[in-house]
Design goal:
This protein is an alpha+beta fold. The chain has helices spanning 4-25, 27-32, 36-72, 87-126, 145-151, 167-180, 229-264, 273-304, 316-333, 353-370, 401-404, 422-432, and strands spanning 131-134, 140-143, 184-185, 192-197, 200-212, 218-227, 311-314, 337-341, 349-352, 376-384, 387-394, 437-441, 447-454. It is built from twelve helices and 13 strands. The termini are far apart.
């Protein structure tokens, strides 16, 4: 296909050929009549018309084409100069106005984006907590001022998290957030990330969130480090205070229980019916207080790390049977059936015997407490990958939905009976043994507590082989 310029040139050439042909045909007639000069004049006029057409039509078209090409290439500062008011002048004027509008639009869009960038950067820098923006692989893209102070000279390095103490935890959280496509906000001691700023060591709680663009494409992750140093110090002081206070109170409580026991056995003489009832009530309350002191001491020892776990191999079926036997009297008082479901050859777990006993006793006592008469409780165990999952299921009234999120908190405000420390102690013991605990419940449909414990590692024992 020919372009406009080529077609115009072709038209002019054809027109010239046509004129030359006509002159050639009429040459004899013109020569006989003495008008030969007229023939040459017609040829000259045709050539002039052709040249004029090329000059006055093709040249403006080429100039406008070059101007339009420059504007299309992004040179919006280019001005289209045209002084005539014909059609070419109108086209040139329109091209100029288009360039101006595009320039204004570009400047306003760039300004808006620049303002948005400056605003987002100012917001990021004004946040007090350290914030680290990374891509999906953990390469650092941007940090705020608090994070720069935390990372020091490594803040400008894309691989800063690889060479920073505690960076492996951040990288692991980024990997989890990107793979699970949801925020990762770990709690507890495992989420604490100690880092040093100058001569001070601070503790941070790690929170990582996936970062996406407006179209939902994954860009990376945003990690926030919440400074919990003061909270951790307060919690440590509280734990130490509770531990000391609990130990100091146990001796007076022991003497009180001995005195009440002596009175109940009649060692202090005959008592009236009212006195006997008062002593029995006081003994029951002293028993609850002793239970609270024991739970407080155990939780404080776990929090402070003073409790040393003595790990040994225990068969799950054996542990469940022993827990059922210990609770059979309390269950019989309410005519509650306690069933055990576990295979005898189930893999052994490597745990502290006392810790496992406390876990099962607390869960089973809660199940008995909240299960009505003639109810049922199931104790079960099964192997799940490298863990053994224990289950305590009851047919009680269940747990309200608003209580589930705080059911394992210390001094649970929803606890109607007991110390409010039992489930908190259970969670701490399970986690200290390398497992996890969860609860499923619906009001009116009972509750199911599940916790996992790691399978004991089997050691290869070599037996000597006799020769001969």
């Amino acid at each position: 296909m020919l372009n406009l310029t080529q077609r115009l040139i072709l038209g002019c050439v054809l027109l010239g050929c046509l004129v030359v042909g006509l002159v050639t045909v009429t040459h004899r007639a013109l020569a006989a009549s003495g008008q030969l000069n007229l023939a040459f004049a017609l040829i000259a006029i045709a050539l002039v018309v052709e040249v004029g057409t090329v000059f006055f039509v093709l040249r403006p078209l080429n100039m406008l084409a070059r101007d339009a090409h420059r504007i299309a290439q992004g040179n919006l500062e280019h001005r289209v100069e045209w002084h005539s008011r014909d059609s070419f002048g109108q086209i040139a004027s329109d091209l100029g106005r288009i360039a101006i509008r595009l320039r204004e639009l570009r400047d306003s869009e760039a300004g808006r984006k620049q303002m948005e960038f400056q605003l987002s950067d100012a917001v990021l820098q004004s946040i007090f907590e350290p914030i680290i923006v990374t891509d999906g692989k953990g390469h650092v893209l941007k940090v705020n001022q608090a994070a720069e102070e935390l990372l020091g000279e490594a803040a400008t390095d894309r691989m800063a998290l690889t060479n920073t103490p505690g960076g492996d935890k951040i990288l692991s959280a980024i990997k989890d957030a990107v793979s699970m496509q949801k925020a990762v906000a770990a709690e507890g001691e495992a989420s604490m990330l100690p880092m040093r700023i100058g001569k001070q060591e601070r503790s941070y709680r790690l929170r990582t969130t996936p970062m996406r663009d407006s179209e939902g494409r994954l860009l990376g992750a945003v990690t926030t480090l919440e400074d919990v140093t003061s909270l951790q110090d307060i919690d440590r002081f509280k734990t130490q205070f509770i531990a000391i206070a609990s130990r100091k109170l146990r001796d007076p409580l022991l003497q009180l229980r001995r005195g009440l026991y002596a009175m109940a056995q009649g060692f202090s003489g005959e008592m009236t019916t009212l006195q006997t009832e008062l002593v029995a009530s006081a003994s029951a309350e002293a028993e609850k207080l002793d239970e609270l002191m024991s739970d407080l001491v155990e939780v404080a020892e776990l929090d402070s790390g003073k409790r040393e776990l003595q790990l040994e191999r225990i068969r799950p079926l054996q542990a469940l049977n022993e827990a059922r036997d210990r609770a059979c009297d309390d269950a019989a008082k309410k005519h509650i059936r306690v069933e055990v479901s576990a295979y005898a050859d189930l893999a052994a777990v490597e745990v502290d015997r006392g810790a496992l006993r406390s876990i099962l006793d607390n869960l089973l006592s809660n199940a008995i407490r909240f299960t009505p008469e003639d109810g049922e409780i199931l104790l079960a165990a099964e192997e799940v990958k490298q863990f053994v999952q224990f289950t305590v299921r009851d047919t009680g009234r269940g747990i309200e939905a608003e209580r589930l999120s705080s059911i394992f908190d210390r001094f649970n405000p929803f606890s109607e009976k007991g110390t409010g420390l039992g489930l908190a102690l259970v969670r701490r013991l399970v986690e200290s043994l390398g497992g996890q605990i969860a609860v499923e419940s619906r009001l009116g449909h009972g509750s199911t507590f599940r916790f996992t414990l790691p399978v004991a590692v089997t050691s290869n024992v070599r037996h000597p082989v006799e020769v001969g």
